[in-house]
Every structure is written in C-alpha cells, then in structure tokens.
Design brief:
This protein is of the alpha/beta class. The protein folds into 2 domains: 236 residues, Type I PLP-dependent aspartate aminotransferase-like (Major domain) (Aspartate Aminotransferase, domain 2); 128 residues, Aspartate Aminotransferase, domain 1 (Alpha-Beta Complex). It is 36% helix and 15% strand. The chain has 12 helices and 15 strands. It has a 7-stranded mixed sheet with strand order 1-9-8-5-4-2-3, with helices on both faces. Strand 6 and strand 7 form a beta hairpin. Helix 1 runs antiparallel to helix 7 and helix 3 crosses helix 6. The longest helix is centred in the C-terminal third of the chain and has 19 residues. The relative contact order is 0.18. It binds pyridoxal-5'-phosphate (PLP).
Length: 381
C-alpha cells in the first residue's frame, strides 16, 4: 500500500541516533543546540527553538507572544485542529476566516471583517506546503497592530519572495514547525518555534522548561520558577535524528517537486481533476499533493473513490475537514457558526491528497494516476 505520506530514514539517520544513545546526555545536551542551529540555517532565521511537537510549538508561540484569556486570533477553517486548539490552551478565542477555494489557503480578503478590539494575531497555515499570500496578510496585520504567527507545519523548505518560509526577512512574529513522520523531516514526534527577538526566544525557552530561569550568578545550583510553563523539551535522540534529516532537506524537497511535476504532467489532460500549481513568487515544498476532483462530474463520491483506490494499493487522505465541522470547535466557537465560508466549502468538497513522499518512484506516480483514472472512469480509459 502506498500511503499518502511517509518518512525516509537512511542508515546515517540510524547511526546518528545510536551515537546520541551512547552520549552522556540523552536530553538537554549539545544535540539540541546543533539541531536548533541547523534549523535556523535552513529557515534563514536567528532564533529557532526545538520542542515536543508542532502543537507544543503553537502553544509556546501563542504564550510567548502574550496571547491569553479574552484575546482573539484569526485563522483558517482548513487546517489541523491544533492550530485552533493551542489558542484555547492559552484561553484565547478563535475567529475563523475563509480560504481561496483553489488553494485552500487563508483568503486575505476574509480577514478584516473579523478584526475586533480583542484581536491579537492572524495565524495563516501554509497548506500542503504552498505559502499563503504573506505580504497581503502582513499589510492587514500592520494596519491593525496585530501579530502574525505562521503555522508552517506543512511548509519547511517552501519559499516566498525568494526567502525560505521561516526567514527573518518575512517580518512575521513567529513560525511554527512539526517534525511528525509525514512531514518534510522527522524527529518522530517533534516541533519547533522560530521567533524574531531575543526576548521572545528567552520566553519560549523558559516556557518549554517549566517556566524555570537558571540563575548561576546567585549560586551554581540556583534557579527560579518564574511563570507557569510546561515540559515541552525535545530530547537529544530526537534532535540527532532531526539534524541528520535536515541535511537532506534540499534533496527531499527537490524530489517532492519532481513528483509534483510528474503528477501535473500525467494529469494535465484529465478534465475534472485539478492539480496544485506554484505561484510566480512562491514555491511549494509539497508536504501534500492535494488534487481537486469534481466527484459529481464522475458520478461518484469521495468515499467510493478512496475505498476503490485503497483496493488498488493507493492510500489517500482528506486535508482537512473544516474546523467548525468538529464538535469541539463548533462548541468553542458558537459565534462563528452563523457565517458561510464558500471558499472552504468548495475546497473541502473536492480535495483529495494523493501519495507524496520522497521515496516514491516515478512508477509509483504512474500507478497512482492509472488507478485514479480506472476508479473515476470505471476502467474505461
Ligand atoms: C497545520 C498543522 N498544524 C499543527 C500540527 C500539529 O503538529 P504535531 O502533530 O507535530 O503536534 C499539524 C500536524 O499535523 C499540522 O498539520
């Protein structure tokens, strides 16, 4: 079975973790610093901080930027639950905008109507690895004095305006990554936050380690718990794997782009199936390859297509069920239920993520495309 995504682990990744296992410090050691330095380089940022997961990274970003009870953030309906859930962790309320029906990315035109005196941040998600329109979102944020926190869990290795997502050049306040196995590089579970100032970096460090501030100038053993934090540290084993994986990021992303080009070429003449496209000033790192299929036109349903593809050995997934379709988010955001989101409805009705991971072969792409045609056309092509 070809899954929709999968990690690529080589012998040198395994050797790096074995080395870490033999080292004196399994956590809090030098491999954490090495991973953070490598991530800062890969993202063009100064302050990159590793943590336990992408969800922990979102929580740390919201908390470190001072978002709390009574505050509101604005995000997209087409995202993983954690983008919004982490805002609930800090006591904030979530306002849900709409998306571009073609890309599934936050539609800048849907943001301003949601801004209130309590709004603190806009949280775009670079869906599937395709960067959002950062300039338009930043212009709105600046006009209203809001933070911008990028959920870049899908977008390590993507670029916007010639700079990597995460780069200090973009002028956003924080950028959040996940290193879950389906992502571009993995640490098992794991994540990271990029922030722009030394103060925010110090706050993230403190919050990921119980709110502890070490004060060796008072006594060698002395520390104070300054505020309520969590144990969101990433250990040296995970960081060893992450550094080894980051060394292959360019190769992994290049292969994802090649696979995307192959899919696009193979599906170019298929009416009713639309492939994602790069924008002139942005390149996707293709965490996912989400096509839009007009299921009605093929007189079928997505469920039938997914089941039939699975029978042919092709795994697919849907990214994402809109936030407000989940009971948790509907209950947490009752005021949001009244508004229609035509962009999200259109995107959700059609989207299907096809297999996309660097170890896929060209023959795998051909098999996926042939299987999709068989399923959609009942074997008539
Ligand atoms: C857009 C987005 N945000 C946040 C997360 C949370 O990351 P993690 O699973 O590492 O906690 C994910 C994970 O899939 C994600 O896709």
């Amino acid at each position: 079975m070809l899954p929709y995504g999968r990690q690529t682990i080589d012998d040198d990744d395994i050797a790096a973790v074995v080395d870490a296992l033999r080292a004196p410090m399994l956590t809090g050691g030098p491999r954490v610093d090495q991973f953070e330095a490598a991530l800062a380089t890969a993202t063009g940022s100064t302050h990159a901080l590793a943590c336990a997961s992408g969800t922990a990274a979102l929580h740390l970003a919201y908390a470190a930027l001072g978002i709390g009870p009574g505050d509101e953030i604005i995000t997209t309906p087409i995202t993983f639950s954690a983008t919004a859930a982490a805002a609930y962790y800090v006591g904030a309320t979530v306002r849900i905008a709409d998306v571009d029906p073609r890309t599934g990315n936050l539609d800048p035109g849907s943001i301003e109507a949601l801004i209130t005196p309590r709004t603190r941040a806009i949280v775009p998600v670079h869906l599937a690895g395709m960067p959002v329109e950062l300039d338009a979102i930043l212009a709105i944020a600046r006009a209203h004095g809001l933070r911008v926190i990028e959920d870049a869990c899908h977008a390590l290795g993507a670029t916007s305006g010639g700079h990597p997502i995460g780069s200090d050049a973009h002028g956003t306040d924080a950028v959040v990554y996940s290193f879950h196995p389906v992502k571009h590089v993995t640490t098992g579970e794991g994540g990271a936050v990029v922030v722009r100032t030394a103060e925010h970096a110090a706050r993230v460090r403190r919050l990921r380690g119980h709110g502890i501030e070490r004060l060796p100038q008072i006594a060698p053993w002395y520390y104070e718990v300054r505020e309520l934090g969590w144990n969101y540290r990433l250990d040296d084993l995970a960081c060893a794997l992450g550094t080894s994986q980051l060394g292959k990021l360019d190769r992994f992303v290049a292969r994802r782009r090649e696979l995307a080009a192959r899919y696009r070429q193979a599906l170019a003449s298929d009416d009713g199936i639309a492939c994602p496209e790069d924008a002139p000033d942005r390149t996707s790192s293709y965490h996912l390859f989400a096509v839009a299929i007009d299921f009605e036109r093929f007189a079928t349903t997505r469920a039938q297509v997914m089941t039939a593809l699975a029978d042919l050995g092709v795994g697919t997934q849907v990214h994402y069920i809109p936030l407000l379709d989940h009971p948790l988010h509907a209950a947490r955001c009752p005021a949001e239920l009244a508004r229609a989101r035509p962009g999200a409805a259109h995107y959700y009705a059609r989207t299907l993520s096809l297999p996309m991971f660097p170890a896929m072969t060209d023959a795998d792409v051909a098999h996926v495309v042939a299987s999709l045609r068989t399923v959609l056309h009942g074997g008539s092509r």
